[in-house]
Structure formats: structure tokens, C-alpha cells
Amino acid sequence: MQLLYAPTSPFVRKVMACAHLCGIADRITFLDSAAHPIRRDARIAAHNPLAKVPTLILPDGQSLYDSRVICEYIADLARNEHLFPAAGPQRWRALTQQALGDGLLDAALLARYETTARPPASQWPDWRAAQLVKVSATLDEIEPQAASLAVQGPTIGEVTLGCALGYLDFRFPELDWRAGHPRAARWFATFSQLPAMQATIPHDA
User: Fold this and answer.
1) Structure confidence at residue 205 (pLDDT)
2) pTM
3) What's residue 163's pLDDT?
4) Is 7 strand, coil or helix?
5) How far apart, in Å, are the Cα atoms of 127 and each of 38, 171, 172, 174?
């Protein structure tokens, strides 16, 4: 399998964390790409019309995207029974937590793009502030759930939340999200030490 990726993408990290948890990370080859919200990379677009990462190319040439689909494919391929519970309340909880983490990341990325992808004359501070309100509200939702979040045998919900909190550390250290969310901070301190999380810490190229 081949993965079009960016080393700083939290959605790529989510995919790779799942691959490590499932024991199949060594079956994935990384392909260079230059994903950008404005400048379209033809190398990605050849496999994904959205030109976004992560995009997974299967041995038969089929492409899978986005991270939600790729993570479920990886879990199915590895016969992992923890990441995506089969049915019932556990499944809906895991998928809702995944949506919560993805939503935090969507808002954080939009806030970052406002200052890194837009020229200064086109930037709208109120837009960026509104995205950070979503980030703050999501953190407030994670906090009461933190005591019940798993570390061993995590679901896709915990993996996504872990990658989301890690992205805040990476790109938004000034938010100091731990200050008002001690339970989430305690969970993340333990979760972030998992080999799958340590192996996928983001870095600037």
C-alpha cells in the first residue's frame, strides 16, 4: 500500500497511528506530496479529486480517502476488533468521539490557514476567532469524558482525540489547553506515550 501524506497532517497521523496499533505500518510506503489548501498538487489529484491527504493507494490501484475510510479499512485488513466496535452503544460512542476529534481538527486547521494561507489583506480575525471558539467548546466536551477514555485497546474515538490534542500542542501551544482541562491532560499524558503515538509525532519537514 502507498500513502500520499504530509508529515505535519494530523489526519495522516491518525491513519498511521491506526496502522501501528494494527501492526501493519510496515506495509505502507510513503509517497511525497505537497498538500496545500490553495496550491493543488497534481500527484495527489491523480488519485484523489480533492487533492487532499491522506490518500491511500491499494495494490490494485484503487484509492481510499479520507482518514475515516482509511482507518476503517486498516482495521478491517488487520482484523482489529478494538478500533471500530462492531455494533451497539460502544460503536456509536467511538464514532461520535471520532467526529468530535475530526471537528476540532477541522476548526484548528481553518484557524491556522487564515494566517498561513491567506495574504494579510484578506485575513479575517473574526473568522479565526470563531474557529478557536469551536476548538475551546470541543475541549470542554472532551473534559468530562476523559475519565472514561481508554488507553489500552483504544477505539478510533480515542485515537482521533489523541491526535487532535497532539495537534494543538504542535501548532497552537499558546492556547495552553491543559490549563482548563486537567482530566483531559492526565489522559493525554498517558495516551501519548503509546508506541503508536510516539512513532507518529508530527514534525515540520
Assistant:
1) 62
2) 0.96
3) 98
4) coil
5) 18, 18, 16, 18
